[in-house]
Specification:
By secondary structure, this protein is of the alpha+beta class. The protein has three helices and five strands, in the order E-E-H-E-E-E-H-H. The two termini are 58 Å apart.
């Protein structure tokens, strides 16, 4: 019964637990350890190679706050769909409803916690309206970045910035890789030592 499940034309060795076919006795023996697993549940353990067995976080740029975040939600109506039934002797997917977008809401949050008034829209073509609204928000955000203001640092801030030897995010040596974050238009920022990593 299992012979046709493999293209191997000579003697085959089936696993009596999972009915998988193997071309050799050695392959079957290796498989049995994994098939029996732990607590009779199949499980295969593969240990990492020497030198590749230490995990280290490297995406330090993802620890930096993004300047703006937009939280958005689109609501949709479930509209029943009428259609003919599929063949019960074959596999098929029958659509019983379609989702029709009817409204959206989003709010823009700046990294310092300042939020704009939420934008709510209910009406025709909400997806098209949503994309147009996001384009307008993007234009406003880009305008903010075009007009940076000077960083105002206290004497304590300046001492901390110039005396720093390591990055407070990744822990690596700063060397010449020093940068002060630019504050947003109209905002006063107290900066701390930062290395801006890509």
């Amino acid at each position: 019964m299992l012979y046709k499940n493999s293209n191997h034309k000579e003697r085959k060795h089936p696993c009596r637990r999972c009915l998988h076919m193997f071309s050799g006795e050695a392959l079957l023996t290796t498989h049995k350890n994994d098939c029996q697993g732990i607590g009779e549940k199949p499980q295969r353990t593969v240990m990492p190679e020497e030198g590749k067995n230490i995990l280290k976080f490297v995406n330090h740029h993802k620890q930096m706050r993004v300047p703006f975040i937009i939280y958005a939600d689109i609501e949709a109506l479930n509209i029943p769909v009428e259609g003919c039934a599929g063949d019960p002797h074959k596999s098929y997917t029958q659509q019983i409803a379609k989702q029709v977008p009817c409204s959206y809401c989003y709010v823009v949050v700046r990294s310092d916690g300042v939020t704009k008034t939420p934008v709510l829209y209910r009406g025709e073509n909400p997806v098209k309206h949503f994309l147009a609204s996001l384009q307008a928000e993007l234009a406003e955000i880009n305008e903010v970045f075009r007009k940076p203001v000077d960083v105002i640092m206290t004497a304590n801030d300046r001492r901390s910035f110039t005396g720093a030897t390591g990055c407070h995010i990744c822990g690596e040596a700063l060397n010449d890789d020093r940068a002060r974050p630019l504050p947003y238009n109209g905002e006063v920022s107290r900066s701390s030592p930062q290395c801006m990593q890509p």
